[in-house]
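Homework help board

Subject: predicted structure for assignment chain

Our instructor gave us this sequence and asked us to write out the predicted structure in token form, then describe one feature. I got the tokens but I'm not sure how to describe them. Can anyone check?
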Amino acid sequence: MQDVGIYPPISSPQLSTMKYPIQKWKRYRRRRRKKKGKHRRKPIPRIVVPSFFTLMNLFCGFLAILSISEGRLFFGAWLIISAGLFDALDGFMARLSNAQSQFGIELDSISDVVSFGVAPGFMLYALGLSELPFIGLILSALPPLCGAVRLARYNVEAHSAEVYSDRGNYFRGLPIPAQAIMISAFYLTFYNRLDLFAGLDNGINNVLIPLIIILSFLMVSTIPFDKVPSFDKESLKKYKGRLYLFIGYGFIILIFWEIGIMIVFSAFILKGIGLAALNFWYNRFGDEDREFG
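My token output:
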């Protein structure tokens, strides 16, 4: 008697269509890879890091205005200086990550107008210019007005490759953060020594008025001021002396704090004015090819 199996024999087409566990696993892995490819996360744009520091600059400017409005000028002055630190960091991070963009330039300008234009102008008005009804209002508006002009000119020149390359190693006109930090350092140096100005006719306003006019004029001028050199080999070799000078500035600030800030930014401004005067003199009356800086 012939032995007949329980199951009928399987033909070759049926063998080819059978799905073994290993085949199912491979198909599952392929489907997962396809889905991952479709929904893969995009990398974080490089511009995010410098933009964060720019927004922190703006936030410090906003807090400075609030502090000054509440009569806390001391905290407002330090918040303006903190905004200056964030402003320096956003430029450094943009160069480090090669994330310089038109968006970053525009965002930086908007933040600078608030932190280094509106905030110091408001502080000057609260410090003493409010005693001069109309003239005080106009004078306290000079930092934001001249600062906005300075920033608009910078943005226009940033589009011109020829102008930007010619002036890549210095600022054309006093940078608006330097003006704001100078005003803040002046207040922090003398806020507990205001009796020194008591003998003057208009008190501290006798010093504030010329200070504001000079700083506002320097912002819209074409006087060149030193720029921190880039950290590439060529720039470090070319501007080695300037790098050592900025390192020295940093040590003075760390040692003397607010008085150190006053000394450093006074030296920075006077150096720019002095070199511009020497260049003008030699171009006008001496060797035209000789240039200081």
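Reply (TA_rk): Your tokens look well-formed. For the description, you could write something like this. The longest helix spans residues 240-285. That's the kind of observation they're looking for.
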